[in-house]
Specification:
0% strand
Length: 170
């Protein structure tokens, strides 16, 4: 068990960062908040000893928890319910997420397949090197580089369409 002062400091420092990671995986602000809360609970209950790797450790736990959620029955059940009943998707998002969604680039990133989105987010938004990303996602560095390239190509295609639409409306 960790001291409450340590946990509070970690929460203050990394909450926004971990929330962005979780949100880019699950695309749901409420679920991202739950995942981040679970990550901090896991840290509090773990035997983690600070060795200068806390950010990477928390990032990996967040990414894994997000992936677990995407594989879970609860997530599949929600998606199935949305398809079957096609209810109006009303999400209460906080200001940070709302502002990010207004950005065209953010929308294009969210439209990427998970593997490419993961590489793009870590590389460009979190400023991690390809080596750090490869350690985080436990894949070879060459795989990360190819995911980055294919992600960039998809972004170019999506953003080119978006720019074209803007030009047509002006």
């Amino acid at each position: 068990m960790k001291s409450s002062g340590f946990i509070e400091e970690v929460m203050h420092t990394y909450t926004d960062y971990l929330f962005r990671i979780a949100y880019y995986y699950v695309k749901d602000s409420h679920m991202a908040e739950d995942i981040v809360q679970d990550v901090f609970m896991k840290l509090y209950c773990s035997n983690y000893v600070e060795q200068g790797e806390l950010k990477a450790y928390l990032s990996r736990i967040t990414a894994n928890a997000s992936k677990d959620y995407l594989k879970s029955w609860a997530y599949r059940k929600i998606k199935l319910t949305e398809k079957l009943f096609s209810k109006e998707n009303v999400l209460h998002r906080d200001r940070l997420v709302h502002q990010e969604e207004l950005n065209t680039i953010d929308k294009a990133i969210l439209a990427l397949p998970l593997k490419q989105r993961e590489a793009i987010v870590y590389y460009y938004l979190e400023s991690l090197s390809t080596k750090e990303i490869s350690e985080l996602v436990e894949r070879p560095e060459s795989t990360v580089k190819s995911r980055l390239k294919s992600g960039r190509d998809l972004l170019k295609q999506n953003l080119a369409k978006e720019e074209w639409e803007v030009l047509l409306h002006d």
